[in-house]
Design a protein that fits this description.
The protein is mostly beta strands. Strands 11, 12, 13, 14, 15, 16, 17, 18, 19 and 20 form a 10-stranded antiparallel β-sheet that branches. It is built from no helices and 22 strands.
């Protein structure tokens, strides 16, 4: 595809068969930081969700963190009316911004610093009268890192398959939003190592309606005894209130950050698709090789056996099929 230089926008992919689409942003100036997200579904079955959660929206935050939101109108025919409500970190009232009417299959742009929001980490809700999704991109100007977050699906039992803590190297930061409009959420967080050991369950914390609570594994007071070098999963449960969760893995002093969306445990399936994995892959511009790590979490009580099948479509893997497990 030929796309104009220095451009961005929305795109529609149409197929005769169901698809999953992974979109990868790779900085071509020598950085290996790559932001990856899954394309949203157009004409998806089910009711239109009027509200879309954004657990963490940075406005001139730590290390120059700044978030911009793109909200595509997924309706192929009708124009959408969209607005953004952002709740500041100091507990004050929300700030409301309205987008111009959004034509079919185009996107509204909410760039937080341009909206005169107070500095800090906000929680937000995007409202639309048509089918929509939200993509949040955060850039850390001080270190050059960037990540993209899909809209995290809400639930009262959320799993993040991979979190980590190595002081001075990498730190996971959870943003947990209570998306309920009129009730508090009592939230319990459990951390379980990938290998050996039982879960560490923290004391419940209360989150006000629409607001978010952040937990950094490296410096949260409740995690003073968590072993340095920890890698594991996080499970976030509420007293029935709907939560939305994002998790960032931030690498100290480096232009690298990974982002994950917490997934409801009830959404676990016996067959999953990863649209893009790397095995020593290279890109133009002399970037270092990229290799993928797959972490699979079992949220149930029964032991499971896992098989991974790889389908190569580029490089030396093209046309090959490999099975692991």
């Amino acid at each position: 595809w030929a796309i104009a230089a220095k451009a961005y926008g929305s795109g529609e992919i149409v197929s005769s068969q169901p698809l999953l689409v992974a979109v990868q942003d790779v900085a071509m100036g020598g950085s290996v930081d790559a932001a990856l997200y899954l394309g949203p579904l157009v004409d998806a079955p089910g009711p239109v969700a009027p509200e879309h959660a954004v657990p963490a929206m940075a406005v001139r935050g730590a290390d120059g963190a700044t978030t911009g939101l793109l909200a595509p109108n997924l309706d192929p025919v009708e124009t959408a009316q969209m607005s953004l409500e952002a709740w500041p970190p100091d507990g004050g009232p929300p700030v409301v911004a309205h987008a111009p009417p959004v034509p079919p299959l185009q996107a509204a742009n909410f760039y937080a610093p341009a909206m005169m929001f107070a500095p800090g980490e906000h929680s937000a809700i995007v409202t639309s009268d048509r089918a929509a999704s939200v993509l949040a991109r955060t850039d850390w100007t001080a270190v050059g890192g960037a990540l993209l977050h899909d809209e995290p699906p809400p639930g009262d039992d959320i799993v993040v398959p991979l979190v980590a803590r190595t002081v001075g190297v990498v730190c996971s930061v959870l943003a947990i939003q209570n998306v309920e409009p009129d009730r508090e959420a009592s939230v319990t967080i459990s951390l379980e190592p990938l290998v050996g050991g039982g879960p560490l369950t923290l004391a419940p914390r209360v989150i006000a309606p629409r607001r978010s609570a952040a937990m950094a594994l490296c410096d949260d007071p409740q995690l003073a005894d968590l072993a340095d070098g920890f890698e594991g999963s996080a499970r976030i449960r509420s007293d029935g209130a709907a939560l939305a969760v994002t998790a960032d893995m931030r690498f100290h002093g480096a232009a690298a950050v990974h982002g994950f969306e917490g997934q409801p445990a009830r959404g676990a399936r016996p067959k999953l698709m990863a649209p893009l994995v790397h095995a020593g892959a290279t890109y133009a511009g002399g970037l270092p090789e990229l290799s993928s790590r797959i972490v699979v979490h079992n949220p149930g009580q029964a032991t499971v056996r896992i098989t991974v099948e790889y389908q190569g479509f580029d490089g030396t893997c093209a046309g090959q099929r490999m099975t692991q497990g």
